[in-house]
């Protein structure tokens, strides 16, 4: 019952964001809604369920800090770059008939994704058994590393894009020297922290499934394929050279140009 009631609330909030999209003509805020809602469900489940207090306290803090930071970052990016994201421009162009009806279904699909990715929080908050201290420490370490890495990657990219002299060039500084998508890598790594937080709980496998779904989403759905398609369209040969020398996802040392031949 708690899950269904939460779903109704999430669907209603997403309907509100769909109405904002209809008025503004931009769907950029759907990502703010996704991150903010998903992160908020961590403390919500921790308050509503009566599982192990240590697990509930940690999942509340970790989910909220992750989700609200990501929502704030996306909100700030949308303010700096008010043009609609290429993903949603593509959808708007290809959904030429019944466009708003299709966008409504898309927003509700995002609401379902919120519920899906919040399942590890629910499982952790409902688990009655005490978690091994070592598992909680490992989960916290992974969470701290991944959140710090993702924030650093976002900051480095924002600084690069904020310099007009670098317009049209690919960011190769900091973490972007070792991975073409360090923000996505740390985002995926962050979901592993809940695997350890759910250690020993009856449905702990749900957390393992969530990180796998995030990896598939980044590689096959909305993450890397779209970002690289956009980068190739806007930066051409400069981005092809970046692809040839820099790891696609997992951070690694860049190849030398001579290694390409």
Provide a brief overview of the structure.
With 261 residues, the chain is mostly helical. Helices cover 73% and strands 0% of the residues.
Topology:
Elements lengths: L1 H23 L4 H20 L4 H28 L5 H9 L4 H19 L1 H8 L6 H29 L20 H16 L7 H17 L2 H12 L1 H9 L16
Helix pairs in contact: 1-2, 1-5, 2-3, 2-5, 2-6, 3-6, 3-7, 7-8, 8-9
Verbal overview:
The chain is 73% helix and 0% strand. The chain contains eleven helices and no strands. The termini are far apart. The model has no long low-confidence stretch (mean pLDDT 92).
Task: Describe the structure using short key phrases.
261 residues; mainly alpha; 73% helix
Class per helix and strand makeup: mainly alpha
Radius of gyration: 20 Å
Mean pLDDT: 92
Fraction in helix? over 70%
């Amino acid at each position: 019952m708690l899950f269904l009631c939460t779903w109704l609330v999430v669907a209603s909030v997403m309907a509100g964001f769909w109405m904002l999209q209809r008025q503004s003509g931009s769907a950029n805020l759907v990502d703010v809604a996704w991150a903010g809602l998903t992160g908020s469900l961590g403390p919500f489940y921790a308050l509503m369920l009566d599982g192990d207090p240590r697990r509930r306290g940690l999942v509340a803090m970790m989910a909220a800090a992750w989700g609200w930071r990501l929502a704030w970052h996306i909100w700030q990016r949308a303010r700096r770059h008010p043009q609609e994201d290429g993903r949603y421009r593509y959808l708007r162009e290809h959904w030429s008939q019944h466009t708003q009806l299709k966008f409504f279904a898309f927003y509700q699909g995002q609401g379902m994704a919120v519920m899906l990715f919040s399942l590890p929080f629910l499982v952790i908050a409902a688990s009655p058994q005490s978690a091994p201290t070592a598992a909680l420490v490992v989960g916290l370490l992974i969470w701290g590393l991944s959140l710090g890495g993702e924030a650093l990657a976002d900051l480095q990219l924002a600084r690069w894009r904020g310099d007009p002299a670098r317009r049209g060039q690919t960011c190769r500084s900091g973490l972007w020297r070792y991975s073409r998508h360090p923000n996505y890598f740390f985002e995926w790594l962050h979901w592993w922290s809940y695997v350890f937080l759910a250690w020993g709980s009856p449905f702990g496998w749900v957390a393992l499934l969530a990180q796998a779904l995030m990896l598939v989403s980044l590689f096959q759905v909305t993450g890397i394929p779209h970002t690289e398609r956009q980068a190739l369209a806007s930066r051409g040969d400069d981005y092809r050279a970046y692809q040839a020398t820099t790891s696609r996802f997992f951070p690694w040392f860049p190849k030398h140009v001579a290694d390409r031949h």
